[in-house]
Structure of Hydrogenase maturation protease:
Amino acid sequence: MVGCGNLLRGDDGVGPILVRHLWERGVPDGARLVDGGTAGMDVAFQMRGAGRVVIVDASATGAEPGTLYRVPGAELETLPPLSGLHTHSFRWDHAIAFARWALAEACPDDITVFLVEAASVEMGADLTEPVVAGMEQVIALIERDYLAPLRPSAPDEPTVEFTDDGYLRLGADLAGQRFPSSAAVAMVREGQLWLLPLRGPQSGGLLLKQRNLAGDRSTLIREVLSDEVPVGVRRAVWDPDQGALRVSLEPEP
């Protein structure tokens, strides 16, 4: 996935900023995120050998700011023409056509372009609210259609382990599926420990640290439980409505 645009020019930076948000969420094996910036020729060569490519950039069509377009790459590869180009005018939209020529069989056939209509491209400005909303829609689509299928499948009957030194341990598959950013917030509700995934470590919360080569994760949970840690393996349930992993703290029969 390639995010294109200029970070210094307001809404034009939506592509690179989106890439940073996806980095925070956690990138599964088999996916690669690229900050394409404004170097269109680099974008072309980043496509080499990929099975599927997603390009994200801002657009300026005159539509309502934040309007989202999802366009097959095949519809854009001849627009604009490559004749008369030089490195300073080479953009991502040239990159698709150039990649077809330069990469030959190594150029992917499955290319999708997401465009978010810009409101302001003033130097030094932040993303405007409509473009942030459009970016969130793109993030959700990329997660659903491209990243989620690459994440490990969570166990049908997940378990977690509380250790006698106050840690909570999660298996690699459970952590990779439900907590891809390795950050979470924990709380106690109705006799249960609730663990909710966060976007990334910058959001605060607990850091799920890798504890072995298999990718299992652990986090210190003792303070959340007021030092009353139910040592041992416990069954867990994923609550899709609350977006939380719920673990009973009551004595098990």
Observations:
- DSSP finds five helices and 14 strands in the chain.
